[in-house]
Each structure stands twice: as C-alpha cells, then as structure tokens.
Amino acid sequence: MARRNVVIFGASGCGKSSIVNMLSDGYVADTAEDAEGRTFQSRNFNVNVLGQPMTLWDTVGFDEGEAGTVPNIDAIVQLYALIRQLSDGVSLLMFVMRAPRIRDSVPRNWKLFREIVCQSKVPTVIVITGLELVANRNRWWWDNQERFQDDGIFPAGHACITATRGRQLAGGAGHLFDQAYRQSTRDVRELIRSTALHRPWQVPAAEWFKNTFIAVLARRIFGMNIAGGALKKLVSDCNMSKSDAMELAKRMRDAGV
C-alpha cells in the first residue's frame, strides 16, 4: 500500500509538531526549534495510521502578530513549494489552531491553502489544540462552529484535543493528561483515516500559473483580459493588500515550482 501525504499547517506554536509526536508514539519532532517555537523548514515523518501508511509533513509555521497580520511570505512560499513538489500528491490538509481564541487570521490561512493553493480539491480538516483543561473537548467545536461557518470554513472533519501529556505525576505514575491524550490520539488517527484521499491530488504544473497567479496578475495588474480569480481571492477573501498579493505571486513564480 502506497504512503499518502498529510500536510499539517498553521501558525507558529499551535501544536503541529506535538501532533506528529502523538501519531508517532514517541518524540520524533522537536516541538520548539527556537525560543518562539518556530519550525524553520518542512520535515516529513513516516507513520502508520490504523493500518494505513502515511507521511506527515510538519511545515513551517506562520509568524503572526496579535493583530492577525498577513502570514510570513517565506512560510507561504515554502508550503506552496512543498505541495507542488510532492510527486505522489496530497491526500489531506490538516489545519491546526490553538484554542480558545479564534484569530482573525484563521479564515485567511484556511482559504489561502484550501481554496487557492489546492483549489478545493484536497479534504481539509481542523484540529483544535490547547483544550487540556476543558472537561468536554468536543463541545468546544459545537459552541464555536457557527463562527467558522460565518467565515466560510466548512472542514471535512474536526478534532478537539490535548496534544500534551502534561506534567509527570508524583511517583512516576504517568502524566496529568494521559487519559485525555490517549483519547485525543485515537480521535486524530480516526480523523485522518476517515478523510484522507485514497487517490492523492497533485497540483498540475503547467496549469497552475495559467489558471491562477500569473494569469490573474496579467489581467488585474497589467490590464490583460485573461481568466482567473486567485488575486481577487487573495485581496478579498484572504484580506491581503494588492502589494502583498503581487509579492506573494512573484515569489511563487520565482520559486520555479
């Protein structure tokens, strides 16, 4: 059975590497590459998810301020390049965010990668971390679901979890959140098993710029009447300025992927 790729993305410090460790049954991914918990390059880890071979991609985190500024362009370009370069395609996007606050950047990041980069062709799920102290983790989603829907976010599935075992208990009798952690592991594994594509999707190399960034830049910036809608989505749906959208498109083109 061929391995399928699961690309994990989200803001810096949201718990992406912790989820990799959870699914690997051990400590394989550093959870803090620097003092701010940033991962500087995408890393892959082969795991078995309920009998199915998968490759998890722990990607560069978006460096976001409290005001929800535009994600770091370097991180966006690296994630785009990764998705383009996966010769065996992508079976699942996993968007990770940390509760309790839903940042204004969440819908922008969701739309950028699900709708623009992957053209709504890849199932995208949400995993909510940071719920260690919440008695009913699943209720967090139902209490906040309407907010996501108002922002146009309709995931293929979700999991509300704790991605940490917590402090070690006295006498070496396990860790504070072990029970919740074990259930969270089961929830994430089932989420992946039930939503990942069996036939991975690949970004068509020749069609990508023709149908999105380059075509739209030509039409909207230089006045050429060429079909496309990516720049409009970047400016309106993803809340980018035209200058940021143009810079992102140029960087993706220059990346040569």
Automatic annotation (TrEMBL):
Pfam families: MMR_HSR1
Limits of the G domain: 5-127
Domain of life of the organism encoding this protein: Eukaryota
One of the record's GO molecular function terms: GTP binding
Signal peptide range in chain numbering: none
Protein name according to UniProt: G domain-containing protein
